[in-house]
């Protein structure tokens, strides 16, 4: 306890945090300035504009909440729901379940559209629920379920929400920067994300965005927002467009330097290029996993490139494999959550960590550890398959 | 917007953030690892132990909330209060007012003991309120009011709370590391602080600690905690002592590296030495301000060494002085808040920023700017007075 902490040099291919670009770590460590410094106010404006680009939105109320993605989720629900409201919540994984928790803690009722873990949200089931609950004011769903690696059709779900006069609320923690996401074109009313997934920034901030319709609802509330820290009526006065910023809480200055740099990296690459990169490396990883006979549990049409849920073969101790990868290769992959605990691994290919070196390292390390664990695998087949896939372009 | 952000090299002598030790910035920028990595779990244990030292407590539930001090405040109230509860809240500045907001947003009733801004909390008034409201379950107060520079008698207030069977809840955002604070010896039940004041870490985390009595109340709640993100029943399972840590939210990994380093710095110096250092440099600053005829608005017996509220002389434009200090000297001092806006400056001497170089720089820059603004001051008198005070030891 008397010594500085020097972390091991891991490769982060779990469900997040993902590897942070050294350029972002360097930005993080620049000298701290005050949260009302004119230079910092200018930085805030730039972060807002860069987030608008990342979310593909013109929403004025677009900013990073000063806490992790879970707080961004809570910010959306506590601002948009009042006691007695009703929200339809799609649950096809751990984070849909967390949405339900949030709705209920706001004193609202959550109508659950449950879906088997590992499957995309069923549009018909959602429409049935919207028809059955005309008093619902919100449809909430997870775009990219980090617990299962499933992509749901956010565009179609948002359109359904509007058809039944509900706000469309989207968890984009794992989707932002990794797969197509267009807040304005799809008509999303409120969205939150995290910084430690496909933005490859450090964990601890949660970008959010609210449509004009959502802002009108926040401004027209009957009850006060139950959280002072997350009350957008107050936060707007600090992050808002007015020249006179009023103090709300002390912003996390240095993590915002890092987020700014991460968003610059994304804009330099270009959103579409980043989406394509995630798809390409996912294809190579999938080819390598297939060569080892390891199944991806999600149907090909709904797989997230950035989060690959891999079935654990019979007779293999999933925790022992993860421990060996960490100890022998400094490689972190994730375990299953909830109903999938013990049954899957989660291999992330997020942001800066989504590159050819990591794909090949992961495949060769996983193959070696599985052979150690007694599986009969042809040595080198996984890497060869991935390389062959890369050559297809 | 296309370029990396390079902050100006400020000296931070406002109400926080304070200058961050470069050693802490370097720790901040070390490679990110996973929040369930065994190496990170060990770091969490070390942070807990170091926070127990800083707070002078054996409380098992001692940890940093993953968000700024305002969220730490909210964590204390949402966990300890249920709808219908009654809390006595002392308000002698902006942050007492924020406590009231938090109590009310929990659906509880806040009984206010109001005190003029700039004065310490009156023990007799508090005892009257405790007598008048035997159904109150909590007495909440600010130890070091950042908005005014006042120290209240936390030990006596906590004792009063216990005499009337109330939990003693303390805001120590600006006191931790700067003035004497002994959580166990004083019988404090719940306390929160910030990292960007006398710990000289970056803003964004909030150390909290709960006594066994407070934990029993949290575990015995009738209603769920209204915040999922701040629910200590869940956070205990991640930060708690069990070997099997369960995931709650993704911890802000790198800021926790920085907090660990900041707490190491504090322990290396020693708490008592840090308190004495703050007192010594405050004395020198006060001598210099006195030499310029600038009044400290708080009585000598209740002044915080780390936050000096200075009356703005008649005819001086307080904002113009701050702007000149920032532009000409890269020196940040703070403005007044609330009823003191426009009437005071707030000069911080916090943590790493509390040193002789900063005291002398601040005095000489302030003197020069006041002379520019038309005040007749003997050149060099402020620095000479401070140096004379230093020589007294």
Offer a concise description of the structure.
Helices cover 43% and strands 14% of the residues of chain A. Chain A has 14 helices and 14 strands.
Reconstruct the topology from this structure:
The structure is a homodimer of 393-residue chains.
Chain A: E1 11-12, H1 22-28, H2 38-55, E2 61-65, H3 69-80, E3 86-91, H4 94-105, E4 109-114, H5 123-132, E5 138-142, E6 144-145, E7 150-151, H6 154-163, E8 167-171, H7 183-186, E9 190-192, E10 206-210, H8 212-219, H9 232-239, H10 253-269, H11 271-291, E11 307-311, H12 318-329, E12 331-332, E13 334-335, E14 344-348, H13 356-372, H14 381-392
Parallel strand pairs in A: 1-12, 3-4, 3-5, 5-8, 8-9
Antiparallel strand pairs in A: 2-10, 6-7, 9-10, 11-14, 13-14
Helix pairs in contact in A: 1-10, 2-10, 5-6, 11-13, 11-14, 12-13, 13-14
Labels describing this entry:
alpha/beta; Aspartate Aminotransferase, domain 2; Aspartate Aminotransferase, domain 1; 2 domains; 14 helices; 14 strands
Describe the model.
The structure is a homodimer of 393-residue chains. Chain A has 393 residues and is of the alpha/beta class. The first copy, chain A, has two domains: 21-268, Aspartate Aminotransferase, domain 2 (3-Layer(aba) Sandwich), CATH 3.40.640.10; 271-392, Alpha-Beta Complex (Aspartate Aminotransferase, domain 1). In chain A, 43% of the residues lie in helices and 14% in strands. Chain A has helices spanning 22-28, 38-55, 69-80, 94-105, 123-132, 154-163, 183-186, 212-219, 232-239, 253-269, 271-291, 318-329, 356-372, 381-392, and strands at 11-12, 61-65, 86-91, 109-114, 138-142, 144-145, 150-151, 167-171, 190-192, 206-210, 307-311, 331-332, 334-335, 344-348. In chain A, strands 2-10-9-8-5-3-4 form a seven-stranded mixed beta sheet, sandwiched between helices. A three-stranded antiparallel beta sheet of chain A has the order 11-14-13, with helices on one face. The first copy, chain A, has a two-stranded parallel sheet with strand order 1-12. In chain A, helix 1 (22-28) packs antiparallel against helix 10 (253-269), helix 5 (123-132) packs parallel to helix 6 (154-163) and helix 11 (271-291) runs parallel beside helix 13 (356-372). Chain A is globular and about 65 Å long. The model of chain A has no long low-confidence stretch (mean pLDDT 96). Chains A and B meet through helix 1, helix 2, helix 3, helix 4 and helix 10 of A and helix 1, helix 2, helix 3, helix 4 and helix 10 of B.
């Amino acid at each position: 306890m008397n010594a500085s902490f020097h972390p091991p040099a891991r490769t982060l291919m779990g469900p997040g945090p993902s590897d942070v670009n050294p350029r972002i770590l360097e930005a993080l460590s620049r000298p701290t300035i005050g949260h009302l410094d004119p230079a910092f106010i200018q930085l805030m404006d730039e972060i807002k504009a860069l987030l608008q680009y990342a979310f593909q939105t013109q929403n004025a109320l677009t900013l990073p909440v000063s806490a992790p993605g879970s707080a961004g989720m809570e910010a959306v629900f506590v601002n948009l729901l009042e006691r007695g409201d009703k929200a339809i919540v799609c649950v096809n994984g751990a984070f849909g379940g967390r949405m339900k928790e949030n709705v209920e803690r706001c004193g609202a009722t959550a109508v659950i559209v449950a879906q088997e873990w590992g499957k995309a949200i069923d549009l018909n089931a959602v429409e049935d629920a919207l028809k059955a609950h005309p008093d619902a004011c919100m449809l909430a769903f997870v775009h990219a379920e980090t617990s299962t690696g499933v992509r749901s059709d956010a565009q179609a779900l948002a359109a359904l929400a509007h058809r039944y006069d509900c706000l469309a609320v989207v968890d984009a923690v794992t989707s932002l920067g990794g797969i197509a996401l267009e807040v304005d074109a799809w008509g999303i009313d409120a969205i939150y994300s995290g910084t430690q997934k496909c933005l490859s920034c450090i964990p601890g901030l949660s970008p959010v965005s609210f449509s004009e319709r959502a802002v009108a609802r926040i401004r027209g509330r009957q009850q006060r927002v139950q959280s002072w820290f997350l009350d957008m009526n107050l936060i707007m006065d600090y992050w808002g467009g007015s020249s006179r910023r009023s103090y709300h809480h002390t912003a996390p200055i240095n993590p915002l330097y890092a987020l700014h740099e991460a968003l610059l990296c994304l804009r330099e690459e270009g959103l579409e290029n980043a989406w394509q990169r995630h798809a390409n490396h996912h294809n190579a990883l999938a080819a390598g996993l297939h060569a080892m006979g390891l199944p991806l549990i999600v149907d090909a049409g709904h797989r997230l490139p950035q989060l690959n849920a891999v079935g654990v073969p019979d007779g293999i101790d999933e925790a022992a494999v993860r421990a060996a990868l960490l100890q022998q290769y400094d490689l972190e992959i994730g375990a299953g959550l909830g109903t999938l605990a013990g049954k899957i691994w989660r291999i992330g290919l997020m942001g800066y960590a989504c590159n050819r070196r990591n794909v090949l390292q992961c495949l060769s390390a996983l193959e070696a550890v599985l052979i150690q664990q007694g599986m009969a695998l042809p040595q080198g087949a996984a890497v060869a398959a991935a390389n062959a896939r890369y050559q297809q372009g």
